[in-house]
Amino acid sequence: MHEFSAACSIVDTALEAANSNNATKITVVNIEVGEFTFLIPEQLSFNFEIASKNTIVEGAELHIKKIKGQLLCGDCGFEGESKVDPDIPPQIAVFAPMKCPKCESSSTTITGGKDFIIASIEAEISESTT
Predict the structure, then answer these.
(1) Which domain does 10 fall in, by range?
(2) Same structural domain for residues 106 and 92?
(3) pLDDT along the chain (130 residues), means of 10
(4) How far, in Å, CA of 67 to CA of 55, rounded?
(5) What pLDDT is attached to residue 130?
(6) Could you give the number of structural domains in the chain?
(7) With b meaning 16 or more CB within 10 Å and e meaning fewer, what string describes 36-66?
(8) d(CA 88, CA 96)
(9) Looking at residue 83, what is its pLDDT?
(10) pLDDT score recorded for residue 90
(11) Do 56 and 12 belong together in one domain?
(12) Is residue 130 part of a domain?
């Protein structure tokens, strides 16, 4: 259900943008999804198709760019991409301390990868005559 809620938000935002700009059809929606949002791209795309039915967003391409998680180590000062242990499900990894890829410390803070951003929307605009 997580992906359906996100898909509905994408469609709602696209419709608001379309309304504000006299768009007649949304053709492309580009989003950025952080690793720690736990959104699964395939499920998000499927739910986007369902949420956009019977709207001007229906049939639009959904382009998803995955963003890696970022960490800050309180011990060695490392700042950079997280390395999730493949044996730990990502949903649990966020709640458990993540080890620093440099010094193996568990004194880390997640500093990136929790974002869900609509980067851009492409649309066909109607020509108004006044």
Answers:
(1) 2-68+113-125
(2) yes
(3) 92 97 96 91 97 98 95 95 69 66 90 95 79
(4) 29
(5) 47
(6) 2
(7) bbebeeeebeebbeebbeebbbeebebebee
(8) 10
(9) 78
(10) 57
(11) yes
(12) no
The two three-digit tokens of residue 55, written as one number: 């709207």
Identify the pLDDT of residue 1: 58
Residues 119 and 87 reside in one and the same domain: no
pTM of the model: 0.81
Q: CA triplet 100, 102, 105: central angle to 5 degrees?
A: 40
Residues 63, 82 within the same domain: no
Q: What are phi and psi of 72, to 5 degrees?
A: -125, 125
Q: Is residue 57 part of a domain?
A: yes
C-alpha distances out from residue 83 to 20, 38, 101, 120, Å = 41, 15, 6, 29
Do 78 and 42 fall into the same domain?
Answer: no
